[in-house]
Amino acid sequence: MAPIKVEQYVVGPVQTNCYFAINEDTKEILIIDPGAAAGQLAEIITKQDLKPRAILLTHGHFDHAGGAEALAERFGLSIYAYEAEKETLEDTALNLSGWEGAERRYHADCWLSDEQEIDLAGFHIRVFHTPGHTVGGCCYFFPYHKILFSGDTLFQMSVGRTDFPKGSASELIRAIREKLMVLPDDVTVYTGHGDGTTIGTERMYNPYL
Q1: Tell me, what DSSP letter sits at residue 100?
Q2: Nearest to residue 31, comparing CAs of 63, 61, 58, 62?
Q3: How many CB atoms lie within 10 A of CB 114?
Q4: Beta bridge partners of residue 159, listed in sequence order
Q5: Which residues are registered as beta bridge partners of 155?
Q6: Quick one: fold of 4-205?
Q7: Which positions ≥6 away from 158 have C-beta within 8 Å?
Q8: DSSP 145-192
Q9: Mind listing the pLDDT tens digit for each residue in 37-80?
């Protein structure tokens, strides 16, 4: 099992957490939710002599997907997203890009399915479809490291907003309970905004669950 290091960078106007999942043996990295600041993130990658292998999007809102294309072009990367998120990425009314002043369409190169298992950068990853915040929102679980990247599905003592177009509170809570709350207590959760948490903490104290 490759040793992992997770680096967090807060980017963009709504303080989104972008993460680097770094294979400490090879310096290969996965970039999760580069919502903005592509130039600065690229400088960090170059300065640390890291080797990007892919971009993983938890969902298609501008604050999570906005910097993906620039980084993909810079380093020759494929962008991964859940298969049901294509419409959100491509529809400016759904990806909320107008909030930044200019409407933009986003894309992914590789479409993932629920419970699919993939291997990237020396890591084994399981994909969980967790709709509710968006139709095709997903979480990335690294079972051998007990790490979950939850995007805007699960937060510390909270859950993602469901008042955006095509959001659903009932779907979100169901997905969290069925897909995430069955994970071990000691799984570390890296959230899309704010501080991280653990599955055990949220199972016990999250008022929405």
Answers
A1: G
A2: 58
A3: 16
A4: 154
A5: 158
A6: Metallo-beta-lactamase; Chain A (3.60.15)
A7: 206, 208
A8: TTEEEEETSEETTEE----STT--HHHHHHHIIIIITTS-TT-EEEES
A9: 999 999 999 999 999 999 999 999 999 999 999 999 999 999 99
Whose structure tokens read 């409407």? 103
Tokens for 29, please give them: 């990295």
What's the one-letter identity of residue 26? T
Q: Centre a 10 Å sphere on the Cβ of residue 103 and count the other Cβ atoms it contains.
A: 14
Record the pTM: 0.98
Best CA proximity match to 144, nearest among 164, 117, 115, 111:
117
Helices (H) and strands (E) in the chain, counts: 7, 14
Give the tokens for residue 100.
């930044």
Q: And the tokens for 103?
A: 């409407």
Q: For residue 49, what are its two tokens?
A: 């002599």
Q: Which two tokens stand for residue 66?
A: 């906005």
What is the residue whose two structure tokens read 């997903």?
138
**CA dist., res. 69 & res. 175, Å (int):** 28
